[in-house]
Design a protein that fits this description.
Largest sheet: 6 strands, parallel
Number of helices: 6
Order of helices and strands: EHEHEHEEEHEHEHEE
Strand content: 25-35%
Number of domains: 1
Strand order of the largest sheet: 4-3-1-7-8-9
Radius of gyration: 15 Å
CATH superfamily: 5'-nuclease
Number of strands: 10
Distance between the termini: 31 Å
Structural class: alpha/beta
Shape: globular
Length: 165
């Protein structure tokens, strides 16, 4: 895929998806600085948003601050705990709504997630909004349909610089 310097880019990160994938596959953390740099790829960054889930403790605060210092706008929601102990804290709908709203101002949306729930979003952005959609994720934990639908896919497993041990 051709990437040129005049393309307007938005980078949207499903931080929870990335956290769990890196931890499960590599016992590592994600290097968001490298991911942002690779995602932008020398083009015009318009917005970078990281969607995070806050638990009851304050353990994540330094991580949220680090994301902000890297240039991400951090959108936060609290982890929901239901009777019986079930936990929920995903950003699928919020990220999707933001992507649709931003699409008018962007040529490319870089989705940092392997979650197959984003497939309808990717198809909508491509077919209705005319945006290119690039996906960055760990191939082993990414939806094959999401990878197929993307205009470009970067496998974060292929380069150790995307991980912090």
């Amino acid at each position: 895929m051709i990437k040129h310097t005049e393309q307007r880019v938005g980078v949207l990160v499903d931080a929870s998806n990335m956290y769990h994938s890196a931890r499960h596959l590599f016992s590592s953390r994600v290097n968001y600085k490298e991911i942002l740099e690779q995602g932008v790829a020398g083009r015009k960054l318009i917005r970078a948003i990281a969607y995070v889930v806050k638990t009851e403790g304050e353990d994540e605060v330094p991580f949220f601050e680090a994301l902000s210092q890297l240039g991400f706008e951090v959108k936060m929601k609290s982890l929901q705990i239901f009777p019986g102990g079930t936990k929920k804290g995903d950003w699928d709908v919020g990220l999707s709504v933001d992507a649709i709203k931003l699409a008018e101002k962007l040529d490319v949306i870089v989705l940092i997630s392997g979650d197959g729930d984003y497939l309808p979003l990717v198809e909508y952005l491509q077919n209705t909004k005319g945006c290119l959609v690039e996906v960055m994720a760990f191939r082993k934990s990414a939806s094959s349909k999401l990878i197929e639908a993307a205009d470009d896919f970067i496998d974060l497993s292929e380069n150790k610089k995307f991980l912090i041990r």
